[in-house]
Amino acid sequence: MSGTAGDGVTGWLLLAAAAFVAGGVNAIAGGGTILTFPVLGAILPADPGRLVAANATSTIGLWPASAVAAWVTRGVRSDLPRWSKWLVVPSFVGGVVGTLLVLGLPPSWFDRMVPWLILLAAVLFAVQPRLATWAHGGGEASTPRIVAACGLQFLVGIYGGYFGAGMGILMIAMLGLLGLGDIHRLNAVKNSLATAINGIAAAVFAAGAVLGSHEVSWPHAAVMAACGVAGSLGASRLAAKLPAARLRRLVAIIGFALAGYYFWRQWQA
Q1: How wide is the angle at C-alpha 113 spanned by C-alphas 110 and 115, nearest 5°?
Q2: pTM (two decimals)
Q3: Strand, coil or helix: what is 180?
């Protein structure tokens, strides 16, 4: 699959820049899909499955950046309680369910959901500081809280497999309630769980593309992977010093603008 606008130099450069920034944003807070999905939606061929293809391509292209962020921050996750590792299970299962929903439902359903999903991601970015402060209550995690956290992580996994922009903020808020440490440690755990969700979603999308249920633009995904990893490496190493709040505000503004654009385009259709 190749895009009309995406075949030009401008389209490729725009995608490379978006993937680079998205890789860095995902390493810090999550939500890089806000940047890459609209670019892919604009440069891929205009057909009924275009937005599903853009979602699949974005997920596959950004997964290596998530894996790099998880690897770089692995040391921060040392001495975590054993029960925290069980959060990977609902992450995997939820990711599979969310991805299958994308592939199983009519493409027109996903098209109608896109403005609302982008708006939700933008709102999550806008309120992230308040969420982080509220969630960072600390305290030991009791059994009911752990069970509730697994249930919430399952829902986050579904959202991540279906679209995913802003799921990192949801995870940081949820993990903060379990008393797992400061914001840097929460971010490290979030990176590992996001890698699990995005990894299983990317695998399902790739398998579906091979079986012909939808399309993936592999050249665009390859460019995204390279640029996203570069952005993730830089942001992961500088996360402790980077003024993330300013970057999140900028991404939120972009998200609100993009949501407005997609609402307008639906209204025009």
Answers
A1: 125
A2: 0.80
A3: coil
